[in-house]
Structure formats: C-alpha cells, structure tokens
C-alpha cells in the first residue's frame, strides 16, 4: 500500500505543490541494473544513478527513472525545452531549472530516499555548455540497506488528489509487475568482438549498457551512472565532489523537488555519441585506465543492445 495515507497527503497538499507517495516492495533477488533494464527497454530517455558500497564510502540509495515529462537540453549557448510534443527556447538553463523547481516544492520524509523526483541527467566533461536533464515524476529508489525497491510517484496539488492517489496505487502495482517479470541476460565471452580504435574514440564499440556493467565491476566507486538520452549513452564511475567545490567536468546528478542536490564527477567514463553508429569516446583520470577500458571492450561480446 502507499505511504503516506490519503488523509496525510490531503494535509500536506495545503503546504506543498508536489507530494511524493511511496510503495515499497522486497528486492533481495534484484539489483539496480535489473530494475533499470526492466523499465528502460521502451524508453528513449532514462537514467541510473547507482550507489555502491566500497572502502571509500557507503551509499544507501540507487535511483532509476524513465520517460521524463519535460526535457532540457543546452548546447553551444542555446537551451531547448521539450514537453508534450513541442519545443521552445529558453534564455538560461540554470535559471529555467531553478524556476521550475521553485514552483514544485515537496516535503521530506524520514528514512525515505532523499531524491523523490525532479531533474536528473548529465553534462559532457569536454563540453561544459552541453547538458541534458529530464524532469522525472516517477522514480525507483533501490535501498542497499534493506534490499528493497521503493516506487516513488509524485502527486500535484491543484487537481483532484483522491483520483491521483488511486491512480498512483494502480501505477505502482504496474511498475512492480514489470520489475518482477524481467530477467537480465548474462554476459558471455567472445575474444574477438568487432572493435577498432581510432583517434578520439572507438568505432564499432560494444553495447554501452553491457560496458557499464564491466566498468562498475572493474572501477568500483560509491557513485556510478548510466544515462540514456535519445542516441546518446553515458557510462561512468564517478567520485562525489566535496561540498562547495565546483568543477567543469561534472557529468551526472540530480536536483530534487525537496531541495536534494547531488553532482557526480568523472573518473572513468565512456560516452557514446550516437548508438546507431556505435562511436565511443573514452575519458579517464589516469592514462592507464584508457587501456584497461579498451581491454574490457575486447574481452566480451555484449547483448541487450536495445537498452
């Protein structure tokens, strides 16, 4: 059943414009990768911001989101906003994002995920002005502490709350069924996949999602990400920047309705500029890691190309 109750949602709607509701399901036999793969198969835009426990730190939550209701793209000084089949230009990306979030404030609940909805996406490290962020109202949070998955749906005040609450119960059950009915394919070995290294990247590169699975195993960190936006893919192992630190190579993160703000920074990353031509660019903090990632690419034949 949903938490909080309909009565509590009604009370909160007098103070907030967006109210998240939560549906928790057991997830001992799943992983954030499986949940992402299950929900993103038919989505053009999706993200996985993953927390993994390492000696460097513990991250309780991983986040998965698909099908944003609004998309903000910025490149070469231009910001485009796409929503409901139409596109228009905005003057300033940061100002636009903040204005939208200011109009959609939500409460914070104890012992619940800190990110309950809002913007999630990535910026390219070598193109400081290029970024893509989606506005997500449906989030799945994987709890590494309890081994549960929390389905988060956001209700908006100003429309019939009771009807929204009832629809959220149905939608949460649908998402749970999608997750429960999916099984992620295993990788299998092949020592000679089609891959050719050239200046600036890799042609005929293996599948980006399967490469992410290898990056997270060989380059573990408290934070990892896989983002899917149209024909772009970003797979990365990331470090969390210190509070107040600003760097130009930010690649992924989120900004929530409830004020939560996480920015991840690149250590090892592979960016697929266009999955239809399978071109990949590799960026790493250490030069030896570039060779390591290339070896990972050569060492397996990959599946799940639709993801």
Q: Which key features would you list for this structure?
A:
single chain; 307 residues; alpha+beta; Anthranilate synthase; 15-stranded antiparallel beta sheet; two-stranded antiparallel ribbon; globular
Q: What structural class should be given to the helix and strand makeup?
A: alpha+beta
Shape: globular
Q: What is the mean pLDDT?
A: 83
Measure the end-to-end span: 30 Å
CATH fold-level topology:
Anthranilate synthase
How many structural domains are formed by the residues? 1
Reading the helices and strands in chain order gives: HEHEEEEEHEEEEHEEEHEEEEEHE
Strand content: 35-45%
The first-level CATH class is given as Alpha Beta
Total strands: the figure is 19
Low-confidence stretches: 188-193
**Superfamily at the CATH H level?**
Anthranilate synthase
Largest sheet: 15 strands, antiparallel
* CA gyration radius, whole angstroms: 19 Å
Helix content: 10-25%
What does this structure look like?
The protein has 307 residues and is an alpha+beta fold. It has one domain (6-301): Anthranilate synthase (4-Layer Sandwich). Helices cover 22% and strands 40% of the residues. The protein contains six helices and 19 strands. The chain has helices at residues 6-12, 32-40, 93-102, 161-180, 208-218, 287-298, and strands at 18-26, 45-51, 61-66, 70-75, 78-83, 86-90, 118-124, 127-136, 138-143, 148-156, 188-189, 196-198, 201-203, 223-229, 232-240, 250-256, 261-274, 279-284, 300-301. The strands form three sheets. The chain has a 15-stranded antiparallel beta sheet that branches. Strands 11-19 form a two-stranded antiparallel ribbon. It has a two-stranded antiparallel sheet with strand order 12-13. A hairpin with a 4-residue loop joins β9 and β10 (148-156). The radius of gyration is 19 Å and the shape is globular.
């Amino acid at each position: 059943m949903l938490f909080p109750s309909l009565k509590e949602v009604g009370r909160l709607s007098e103070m907030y414009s967006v109210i998240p509701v939560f549906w928790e399901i057991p997830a001992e036999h799943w992983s954030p990768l499986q949940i992402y793969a299950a929900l993103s198969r038919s989505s053009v835009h999706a993200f996985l911001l993953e927390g993994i426990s390492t000696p460097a730190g513990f991250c309780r939550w991983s986040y998965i989101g698909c099908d944003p209701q609004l998309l903000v793209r910025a490149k070469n000084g231009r910001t485009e906003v796409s929503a409901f089949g139409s596109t228009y230009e905005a003057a300033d990306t940061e100002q636009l994002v903040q204005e939208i979030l200011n109009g959609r404030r939500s409460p914070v609940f104890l012992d619940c995920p800190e990110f309950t909805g809002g913007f999630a996406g990535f910026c390219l490290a070598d193109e400081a002005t290029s970024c893509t962020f989606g506005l997500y109202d449906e989030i799945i949070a994987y709890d590494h502490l309890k081994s549960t998955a929390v389905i988060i749906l956001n209700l908006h005040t100003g429309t019939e709350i009771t009807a929204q609450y009832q629809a959220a119960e149905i939608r949460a059950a649908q998402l749970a069924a999608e997750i429960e009915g999916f099984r992620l394919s295993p990788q299998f070995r092949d020592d000679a996949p089609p891959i050719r290294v050239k200046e600036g990247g890799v042609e005929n590169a293996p599948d980006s999602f399967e490469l992410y699975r290898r990056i997270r195993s060989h380059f573990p960190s408290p934070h990892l990400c896989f983002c899917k936006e149209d024909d772009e893919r970003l797979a990365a192992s990331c470090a969390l920047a210190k509070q107040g630190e600003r760097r130009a190579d930010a690649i992924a993160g989120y900004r929530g309705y409830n004020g939560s703000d996480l920015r991840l920074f690149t250590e090892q990353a592979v960016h697929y500029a266009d999955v239809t031509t399978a071109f990949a660019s590799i960026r790493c903090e250490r030069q030896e890691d570039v060779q390591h990632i290339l070896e990972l690419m050569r060492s397996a034949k990959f599946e799940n190309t639709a993801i």
